[in-house]
């Protein structure tokens, strides 16, 4: 109950206002409708239901419903002068409301970004991303764990014998050779750490032990790739249904997913250390709970979850992350598309090479368990062979010694026992042919999309490839064995030479050179095999997806827009919602300032801001009335907008009729004059 004169909260049935002293009963009798304002304000508030309504399917497919915004994270406050969304609490002592919110303390859901972050759907997406990523990594680690268990149980020595080949000066694991104790669960945790390029360190059983401090890490394996894909799958699955914006809610949520996955696994690995002993004597432990393991788990989960959140905004017309990635890949333009195709080709070749090497080694050594190590060794062996085949070098660095480089023109290849050196030259020719095919696909893309054709754009993709290989070569492609004791300290590393990223830049520039020189002529002269290169062209983006991205205030890559132009209605609605949101924030700040002044003047009883007398509460739609993705856009209204109508904070309204699915002709002014073959 509120005072009709000053708006202060009063007890039910009170005859006089404790703030202004005016009579209340007479005023209420004269204005009976005013006493019903709190109830009316409460009845107009939306219901907050966490149930998901609507599913988003492929845009071109008929009969597939699109998701709608989650109102728990998308309701905005009414404009200034409207009644508060929450009713006044019961009064306390001396007429002061016991549940009043203190001044200068803002509810956590008052910030639009925070409301989106703490929405039930986004919380589920964070934990689902971490959970699916960990589950995928654990499943892939089962295979090498089985191999370790079989090999160590059938030998007098444990898996530590793998390090017997090192000299005593650089073998920090010498004290732990010939020990027993780890079981299948311990090997499972150790192989997860190895597969994500984390580190595993021996630990002494007693504090006074003289064992060396050491750690070993190997390059990223298929276990890490599975972790990335699993995290992307979980993030896309729920972020798409909740219409979570990629910037900044998706980026922050991805970081939180990485923290959750890294903290859970590192804690489990630190608790369940692998015991190492000889007979009944405990010699030490083997632990995967290291800082590098935490860092790599966080980084890979962050990358995977971020990719899932990104696809949920830029490819929302799919039902899973795999089809979304395929569609987004074929809708991108310019150097981004070329970079994706080159890197995908390299990763595929590396994986195939690594598995082939493991198969050859398995048959030559008659050791069937070797093939089970593919989750942690396939990418490592394939990467080293790929580096050598593309005129790179593998460098072995040992403290106090000159580095040893292994290449086609240097030392004898270490794979002579597995395959002949001429096979490496055959691989070089295969890589050359496949990159030429990628260049022809880029040429076909330039014919239909000449806006990004020309030598002025030819440097962008090679620079992106060089950055990729510089980071990957340092973080994910090197075996590192670090040690420290009373007499020596250092690290032994085996991996691609640091300058190899420059070699990859040259290979990438050759692709751009072919695409910008004679590639289009080759395409026009080979129209009989056009279907082999049609996949390199840019597929048109459905208009509703373009409008959705525009409503989320998302840009594909700033200067590199999507394959379509947002409709005028979508841009107008997004701009109107943005301006209205700014007005609402300004009104809320003014109302907070007025409440602060009233609090300073009247005391604690004015802490809860009552509604302004005579102002009708702003009606907000119920949960089931949220605009659906793909529905006709609502015209901007002067009333306070929904929170989901703000650009970037939910599913915006989009036109119902999608754009024509015919191939778009980009840049007709500068396009080719010859008749082009159809892309379909």
Automatic annotation (TrEMBL):
Chain ranges passing through the membrane: 125-148, 214-239, 251-272, 293-312, 343-363, 370-398, 422-440, 461-483, 498-518
Q: Where is this region: Disordered?
A: 59-97, 604-680
Listed Low complexity bias regions:
615-634, 640-667
Regions of biased composition (Polar residues) lie at 67-78
Q: Which residues form the Zinc-ribbon domain?
A: 2-23
Keywords, ordered alphabetically: Coiled coil, Membrane, Transmembrane, Transmembrane helix
Which InterPro entries does the entry link to?
Zinc_ribbon_dom (IPR026870)
User: What's this protein's name?
Assistant: Heme utilization protein
